[in-house]
Task: inverse folding
């Protein structure tokens, strides 16, 4: 965590090979060519994901029947679960599939809160509304306290001690966002877990990896959390699917299920097998990328995933430097006096490639439109149901967000910087 | 020039709140009031606040003052020696007042004595008819004789109220000229200048009240300006009015009657801001002080206004925020009535001697004592500057005065006091909601005043309100409202006319004329040089009725059909029915002019970085002592949810969260209490 990420762009040969594997990388079906820099809202989809989903989703019959098509459906689901475990670095134990991270947040927190007399749930100002609100609503419903750890305004991240300070013997669960979809601030999950465990060994620690998943290796078992949750659409797969790995003790908590199912079975009813196959296609892709970037290439899928994620981090770190500091005569985001960056200014210090900024005197909605007209897709986060609490904690009402992914190129970053320069140029 | 300071003079404390309009920094301070001269506490308070916070007097841009000088003059009958001159034959209008009886079944019912003693009510021959024509000219020799009498009687001020002066003020104006010559130095107040409306009793009463309080108020303000000047502070304070707007000291010194019910108006203004900040349209504001409980309704983002009210039973017709007050608060005394029933208030232990637990000689158990006995209030607390409360004395008073006589346990008796006082507050809330066609379930209860947040949870439950909001600084919420108020003047005039036959352009012209008058008083200039906005209102009734309903007339061309529709809607909401086909009549045309001023920002809420849980104590809830967590309000980070039962303490108040409730801290730092579904 303390090691700054190395900075290394993909090789000129690899970059196009990466982009070639994604749908709509260079342009969208409506407006044509553009730079897609709104990856925190959802990543581009892999072509292989689309194909796998079509192939497996089209298979007749449900799993668990005695015929080849059914067996293939069952296999795809099992393989998908195994790939989720591989991706997360989790034991094969309980892998939960749900429709979204938000649904996971409500189910997991409810399991932790249910049947307790009093106690508290600890979340943070940096949490996405999915966890923040689930904690608030469930606390109110079950008579618990919700405690909110403050974010660190200077870094736009969450300090482990700020979380640890709020836990005690009555803490039922702690939610920790692994990386913020607004500031890009990354949490040192292992440090949080260690400090929480020391004070409140009973507390269930639930990590929200929705933002982080596509940007760095996850080591769910190693960092000591009870659950790690992420959304498939944020990591090149299809919407409508989120996955989580659960510790044995969390999996054993009471939860909705059919009476005859194994206690650790959390899935409800028939899931879409295409969603599992699609995620296997993501892991296949990461294995391919790992093989391209590591020498010698590791032999196992986990090793290949790790290599891929390190390469992704290095590439994104290089893009981040360019975005913040500029290059080839283009001023970086930090060079503009009218621009305020909310969060960490050092791209090597506990942050991911998500940048929230404001421009003095310019409403964010207008800015997003203006960038759009210049072929740069961004988004703003406003004080709505999703982001209000975090923005308030940052002391702002709205921000523009630019968020990068590993398929983005230096040229796309430059397109952003050029548009910014033009927008800020005195008329 | 960045600081604005609001000063709210209360019976016990003078509250000061300062805000830095540049960065939103908020300061507050409390000093003991100096009832003999409220300006003393005001100046001391401002000086102490400045010294403590290093604010240079020159950095103060604005002082806004909520004054009770006029109010107390009426309540304590310590106004000026004033005379009232009226049309021959109408001497006893002020004494007879209205036909309706204050208490229907009280055969010995008495009306309050007017503020002018009967011997100082004088008649002169004159008569102007309802259409403004002069029937009998003003009898100057008669007036001259009256003047001689009044000189001998050494009156300080004179009110003049003639019949129908609201249509033709000629005689009142002529009388003033003659009075000015005959009684130089004596303040003269003309009824048509105070209010220009039909109904001679209300007009005379309001005019007499103005004459009664005006010399006091003017004297007070002159002295205050001198004190401020001597202290190197801005010597042109603004004064809060009953309509929720502020005015200059010069206007307040003339139209003092407009400040009579200004005390609670600050709370409503602050409530409006809270409603806007939190996206709520419907709010009941309730201010629980030491002696009184003031309720008001904000509906659809707008406060309820009234143009008729009374003070001490005397009619007072000036535009004001509609506030209902009952004698119930922390100082309300628990007592046993002749029938053996437990009662609470309206008598109050006041600031002196105060509740028993204050140890200042109080012997009667009060609501505050009951809250202490029940553990809702801490014995050792930061309350009112770190005062320690005497629990043993409070228990003893509750036991001796109430529990033993009622054959109850001490806690039961204390709980009884709370339930009875809550019932009185609940009745006040119902009066403004249920009795006015509002369903309390559609409202949030915004509760403040030092004693409020201990009662809010139960009040909301009993009235069926979904949530309680405790603002960040409930103890100085009203003073904060002073900082938010705008310069506002109103002008109304009776204009009896069938709505159907009204020419919209003529009506618009009437509004314009009234707005111009108000704008001049506002200092906006007759030409409207300073930017201001005009709100237009009409008081309407069905032809043949006597009570009116007010509707707003939006800017732009006036649509009479829309006005009628609004009237019917208001009638239906209030009474449950309307008569779509019946003719409607305009009674009063009413213009409200507000000066555009840069808005005072709501200060950001910045919690302290420390654990919020500061302890636990037993609190009597649902019939037994329950261990209850205690939290430090200012350590609560927005988003925090606290499950009840809980006590949340802060220097200026204590909030009680009931067992089946939870309290959430919103992004602005307000506490929002709601019930969880019972399982
Ligand atoms: C950090 C974070 N957590 C949770 C979510 C919610 O994910 P979902 O839409 O799958 O519920 C998002 C979505 O933007 C997110 O960025």
Result:
């Amino acid at each position: 965590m303390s090691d700054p990420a190395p900075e290394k762009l993909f090789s000129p040969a690899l970059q196009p090979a990466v982009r070639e594997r994604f749908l709509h990388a260079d342009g969208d079906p409506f407006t044509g060519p553009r730079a897609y820099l709104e990856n925190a809202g959802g990543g581009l989809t892999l072509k292989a994901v689309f194909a796998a989903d079509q192939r497996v989703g089209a298979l007749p019959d449900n799993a668990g029947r005695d015929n080849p098509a059914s067996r293939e459906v069952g296999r795809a689901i099992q393989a998908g679960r195994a790939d989720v475990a591989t991706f997360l670095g989790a034991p094969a134990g309980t892998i939960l599939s749900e429709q979204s991270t938000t649904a996971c947040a409500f189910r997991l927190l409810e399991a932790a809160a249910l049947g307790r007399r009093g106690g508290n749930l600890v979340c943070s100002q940096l949490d996405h509304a999915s966890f923040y609100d689930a904690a608030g609503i469930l606390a109110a419903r079950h008579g618990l306290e919700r405690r909110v750890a403050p974010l660190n305004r200077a870094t736009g991240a969450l300090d482990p001690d700020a979380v640890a300070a709020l836990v005690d013997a009555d803490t039922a669960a702690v939610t920790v966002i692994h990386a913020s979809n607004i500031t890009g601030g990354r949490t040192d999950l292992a440090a949080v877990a260690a400090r929480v465990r020391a004070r409140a060994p009973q507390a269930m620690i639930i990590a929200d990896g929705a933002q982080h998943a596509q940007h760095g290796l996850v080591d769910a078992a190693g960092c000591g959390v009870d659950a790690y949750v992420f959304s498939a659409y944020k990591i090149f797969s299809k919407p409508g699917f989120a996955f989580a790995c659960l510790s044995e003790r969390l999996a054993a908590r009471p939860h909705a299920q059919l009476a005859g199912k194994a206690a650790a079975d959390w899935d409800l009813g028939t899931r879409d097998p295409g969603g599992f196959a699609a995620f296997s296609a993501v892991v296949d892709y990461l294995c391919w990328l790992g093989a391209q970037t590591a020498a010698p290439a590791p032999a196992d899928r986990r090793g290949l995933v790790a290599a891929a994620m390190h390469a992704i981090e290095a590439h994104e770190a290089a893009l981040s430097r360019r975005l913040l500091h500029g290059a080839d005569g283009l001023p970086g985001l930090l060079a503009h006096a009218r621009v305020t960056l909310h969060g960490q200014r050092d791209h090597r210090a506990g942050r991911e490639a998500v940048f929230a900024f404001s421009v003095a005197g310019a409403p964010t909605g207008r800015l997003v439109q203006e960038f759009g007209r210049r072929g740069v897709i961004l988004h703003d986060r406003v004080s709505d149901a999703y982001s209000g609490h975090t923005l308030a904690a940052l002391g702002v009402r709205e921000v523009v967000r630019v968020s990068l992914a590993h398929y983005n190129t230096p040229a796309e970053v430059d397109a952003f910087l050029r548009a910014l320069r033009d927008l800020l140029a005195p008329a | 020039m960045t600081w604005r300071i609001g000063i709210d003079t209360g019976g016990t404390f003078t509250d000061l709140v300062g805000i830095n309009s540049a960065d939103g920094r908020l300061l507050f301070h409390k000093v003991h009031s100096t009832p003999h001269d409220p300006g003393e506490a005001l100046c001391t308070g401002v000086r102490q606040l400045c010294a403590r916070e290093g604010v240079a007097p020159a950095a103060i841009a604005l002082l806004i003052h909520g004054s009770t000088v006029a109010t107390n003059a009426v309540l304590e009958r310590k106004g000026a020696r004033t005379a009232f001159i009226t049309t021959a034959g109408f001497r006893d209008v002020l004494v007879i007042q209205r036909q309706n009886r204050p208490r229907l079944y009280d055969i010995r019912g008495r009306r309050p004595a007017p503020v002018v003693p009967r011997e100082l009510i004088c008649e002169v021959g004159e008569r102007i008819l309802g259409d403004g024509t002069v029937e009998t000219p003003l009898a100057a020799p008669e007036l001259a004789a009256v003047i001689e009498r009044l000189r001998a009687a050494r009156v300080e001020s004179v009110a003049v109220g003639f019949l129908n002066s609201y249509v033709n003020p000629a005689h009142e104006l002529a009388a003033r000229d003659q009075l000015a010559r005959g009684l130089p130095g004596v303040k003269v107040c003309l009824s048509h200048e105070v209010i220009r409306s039909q109904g001679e009793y209300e007009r005379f009463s309001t005019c007499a009240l103005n004459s009664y309080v005006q010399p006091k108020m003017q004297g007070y303000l002159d002295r205050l300006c001198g004190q401020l000047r001597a202290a190197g502070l801005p010597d042109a304070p603004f004064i809060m009015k009953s309509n929720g707007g502020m005015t200059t000291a010069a206007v307040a010194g003339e139209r003092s009657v407009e400040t009579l019910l200004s005390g609670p108006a600050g709370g409503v203004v602050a409530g409006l801001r809270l409603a806007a900040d939190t996206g709520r349209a419907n709010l009941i504001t309730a201010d629980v002080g030491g002696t009184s409980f003031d309720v008001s309704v904000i509906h659809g983002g707008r406060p309820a206004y009234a143009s008729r009210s009374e003070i001490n039973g005397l009619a007072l017709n000036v535009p004001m925020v509609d506030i209902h007050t009952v004698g119930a608060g922390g100082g309300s005394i628990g007592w046993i009535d002749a029938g053996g029933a437990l009662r609470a208030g309206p008598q109050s232990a006041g600031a002196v001697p105060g509740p028993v637990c204050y140890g200042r000689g109080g012997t009667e158990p009060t609501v505050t004592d009951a809250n202490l006995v029940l553990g809702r209030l801490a014995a050792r607390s930061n309350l009112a500057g770190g005062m320690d409360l005497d629990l043993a004395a409070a228990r003893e008073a509750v036991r001796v005065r109430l529990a033993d006589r009622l054959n109850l346990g001490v806690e039961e008796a204390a709980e009884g006091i709370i339930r009875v006082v809550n019932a009185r507050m609940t009745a006040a809330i119902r009066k403004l909601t249920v009795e006015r066609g509002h369903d309390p379930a559609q409202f949030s209860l915004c509760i403040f005043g030092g004693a409020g947040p201990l009662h809010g949870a139960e009040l909301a439950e009993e009235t069926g309100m979904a949530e309680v909001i405790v603002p960040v600084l409930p103890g100085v919420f009203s003073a904060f409202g002073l900082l938010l108020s705008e310069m506002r003047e109103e002008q109304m005039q009776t204009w009896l006319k069938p709505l159907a036959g009204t020419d919209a352009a003529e009506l618009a012209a009437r509004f314009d004329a009234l707005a111009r008058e108000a704008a001049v008083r506002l200092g906006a200039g007759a030409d409207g040089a300073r930017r201001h906005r005009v709100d237009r209102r009409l008081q309407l009734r069905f032809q043949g009725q006597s009570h009116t309903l007010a509707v707003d007339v939006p800017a732009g061309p006036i649509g009479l059909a829309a006005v009628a529709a609004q009237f019917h809607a208001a009638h239906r909401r209030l009474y449950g029915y309307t008569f779509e086909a019946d003719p409607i009549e305009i009674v009063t045309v009413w213009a409200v002019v507000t000066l555009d001023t840069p808005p005072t920002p709501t200060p950001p809420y910045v919690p302290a970085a420390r654990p919020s849980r500061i302890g636990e104590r037993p609190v009597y809830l649902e019939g037994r002592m329950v261990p209850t967590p205690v939290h430090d309000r200012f350590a609560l980070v927005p988003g925090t949810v606290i499950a009840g039962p809980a006590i949340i303490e802060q220097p200026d108040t204590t909030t009680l969260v009931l067992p089946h409730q939870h309290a959430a801290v919103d992004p602005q730092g307000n506490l929002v209490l709601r019930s969880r579904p019972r399982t």
Remarks:
- Chain A touches chain B through 24 residues (CB under 8 Å).
- Residues 301-325 of chain A form the longest helix (25 residues).
